[in-house]
Amino acid sequence: MLLRTRHAVVCAVLGSLIVPTSARAEANTERPIAVALEYDVPDACPSVETFRQQIEARGSERALFLKSADGDATQGRLRVRVLVTAERYGRARAQLTIVSSRGDTSERAFDAATCEEVVDASALLVAIAMEAERGTSEPKAPPRAALPASSKPSPLSFLVYAGAGVGAGLGPSFGPALEGGVGLRSRHAWGSEARLEARHVRLGTTEVQGGTARFDLVAGAVEGCPVAFRAYGLRLSPCAAIAVGRLSAIASGFANARERAVLYFGAEIGGRLTVELGPAFLGMEAWGTLPLTRETFIFGTAGTAHRLASLGISSSASLGLHFR
Predict the structure, then answer these.
(1) Residue 242 phi, psi (nearest 5)
(2) pLDDT value at position 75?
(3) What mean pLDDT comes out for the span 95-110?
(4) What 3-state class would DSSP assign to 105?
């Protein structure tokens, strides 16, 4: 149930929950209603003491508030959970759960322009539930697992993506690259990002001893972007990575042609620009690569096919989805 202000909340619930005035007049002479309260709100919202006062100010019912962290909290005649989260433009959203002494659960969600309004509306609903509780018989032991789990959003988003690009420096010429991976992204304003990526890069072909040698790199990389700058649906991040894989050269066209493969290590630094498209995103990135293994490939008798350069460059574009 989604209401805009506390006045709409009042209209929705008074007709079904209000009790006769005569019942209120007798309430003060009876023992107070026990309420096990869990109150989770942002710092700028009214305090829990203010919330209690708002409940008791709504009518003649007196309340004995129990801390939900205490062992006796489950013996409360009413169990109440109030969860308030901040929304855009200063608005606030409340999720209110009330469990009666009979085990009946009532859940309501509503928002308003300020946190004070949703807290005040929540206090009204709790006070009405206390009045209704007064008319019930002595409670039986309520079920201990009646309250639902917290619905706070996760601070991380899960990413999956695939892309293609081009690279140079590690092989004898420019070559195409395919990549794909998964990652985690913080949802905070300056949130970091981490990815695990698989790559296959064609590094070009060179002539040697009258034949040819084709170079390929199959690698995995761990990428980290410690900070992000965001505006207008764009996300710009400086990043660093470590890549480990298999660099191979396959010779053909001359006697004793063979394949040679070495273990490859590389350190990378670059940047990534991401365009947010709802649950999807388009990424564009550029990297500089410093090979930590400088290998020379020789074929035939003494034909040097290729020596890894001291610096490589690459660029790619990717398309992916993030799940919150």
Answers:
(1) -125, 130
(2) 54
(3) 86
(4) strand
More confident site: 146 or 244 = 244
Q: What are the residues whose beta carbons fall under 8 Å from the beta carbon of 209, sequence distance 6 or more?
A: 254, 299, 300, 301, 303
pLDDT surpasses 70 at 2:
no
Backbone angles phi, psi at 142, to 5 degrees: -75, 155
Report field, pTM of the whole predicted structure over 0.90: no
CA angle 273, 224, 323 (to 5 degrees): 70
Q: Which of 188, 198, 201, 183 is nearest to 272 (CA)?
A: 183
Tell me the average pLDDT across 161-169: 91
Q: Which domains does the chain have, with CATH numbers?
A: 6-134 (3.40.50), 156-323 (2.40.160.70)
CB 10 within 8 A of CB 17: no
